[in-house]
Amino acid sequence: MTPPKPETRIIQRGRNHSYLLDGDKVPGVTTILNKGFPKAALVGWAAEAAAQEVIDCWEQLLELTPSQRFEQVRTAPDRDRDKAAHRGTEVHDYAHRYLAGEEITPPDELAGHVDAYVKFVDEWAPQELATEAAVFSRRYRYGGRFDLLARLADGNLWLLDLKTSRSGVFLEAVLQLAAYRYADFYVLPGEVDEHGVAVEHPMPTVDRAGVVWLRADRSYELYPVDADDQAFAIFGLVQGVAGFASSSFGDWIGDPLRPLEEAA
């Protein structure tokens, strides 16, 4: 008989995932930021991604029906975003295997990022406490997944996010790391007790938070981030806006009224 899955965990669906906390689905930090934090730059980026799809795939698009062509161009920004989101996880995996002595052959588009991470390890000597761990807050009802919790060569315990984007570090990283830092606990994949309940590790006191920008040219930058209690308070405001954006029309707006005499 297959053992029951723990009620607090990440649910993985291909390249996408969601979070269960005590059996209830809760929003992820990324979803909260997407719905509640304005990103004016993404409007231009989405237009550029769609235009780039037309330029790069012109011949293939001509072979499609108009509706198929529309759909491929319309979803180009989504595919580009998803690819970037998972690049960091792939880079981390390749680098870990390499550092463990395994012979690896990363694809060309990841090779520079992997070399950059290896250089970061050589220079900052991270002693890992957890990687790719799911974090949860029972008080504020959200989940998330951080990249790396490690003690670096400076002696500080760092909460780190790995970025491989072409544009570097964005402001929302402050709120993202604050949400992870002030979560209640984290769980590791497959780690359960004798009752099949996920083992909860209290989120330790983090000394510093930061972003490691791994570039394709085999270089990296470590950016310190002030993901403090003030940033976490701002994340709470963003979560409120995201909750409002996710609510339905009927939650706030009633049926249209008729003139008083007709209603009477």
- Helices and strands, in order, run as EEEHHHHHHEEEHEEEEHHH
On the 0-100 scale, what is the average pLDDT?
87
- Main sheet summary: 7 strands, mixed
- The structure class reads alpha+beta
* Main CATH class: Alpha Beta
Q: What is the percent of helical residues?
A: 40-55%
Number of strands: 10
Poorly predicted tracts of residues: none
| Total count of domains | 1
State which percent range the strand residues make up: 15-25%
User: What is the 3D form?
Assistant: globular
Keywords:
Lambda Exonuclease, Chain A, 3-stranded antiparallel sheet, 23% strand, 264 residues, alpha+beta, 7-stranded mixed sheet, 10 strands
What does this 3D model show about the protein?
The chain has 264 residues and is of the alpha+beta class. It has one domain (9-35, 87-246): Lambda Exonuclease, Chain A. It is 44% helix and 23% strand. The chain contains 10 helices and 10 strands. It has helices at residues 29-36, 40-56, 58-62, 66-74, 76-99, 108-124, 172-181, 229-246, 249-252, 260-263; strands spanning 9-13, 16-21, 24-26, 127-137, 142-151, 157-163, 185-187, 201-202, 208-214, 220-225. Strands 8-7-4-5-6-9-10 form a 7-stranded mixed beta sheet, sandwiched between helices. Strand 9 and strand 10 form a beta hairpin. Helix 2 (40-56) packs across helix 5 and helix 5 (76-99) crosses helix 6 (108-124). The radius of gyration is 22 Å and the shape is globular. It starts with 8 loop residues before the first strand and ends with a helix.
